[in-house]
Amino acid sequence: MHPKDLPTSRQHGYVFYDNGCGICSNGVIWLKPLFDRLNLQITPLQEPGAREQLRLTPNELLRDIRLLSQEGKQFAGADAYRYVLRRIWWLFPIYLLSITPLFRQIFNAIYRAIADRRYRLSATCGLRPPTKI
Question: What residue numbers bound the domain in which 59 lies?
Fold first, then answer.
C-alpha cells in the first residue's frame, strides 16, 4: 500500500485481514456491509506493503485482524471488533458489554481462542478462502 492509498475523506480507514484463512476471508465478506457503512476498506494483510504500512514484524503480521483508522490509529484483534461495534447503533449494546471488566476478558479470550485456532477451525468447517473478495 502506498501513501496515496491512505484513507481519503470518504474512507474512514482500512480493515486488514488474513486472506489465507477461511474464517477471516469469509468473515470479511459477511461483515462487508458493516465495513462499507463505516467507509472501511478491506485489505489482505498479505497485500504488498501492508506490513510496512502497519509497522509490524513478519511474526506479528498474521497474528490478528487490524484496523487502521483515518487518523492513523491502529486497533488489533478484539479491539478492532470493538471499534466497529461502537460505531453501529444496533451493535452498541454489545460494545458496552465488551468494555465492562468481566465481559472484556471473556470477549478477548473468545477472540484469542478463535484467532489462534483459525486455520484448524477453517479446515474442520471446510471454509476455504474465496478466490476474490
Answer: 3-124
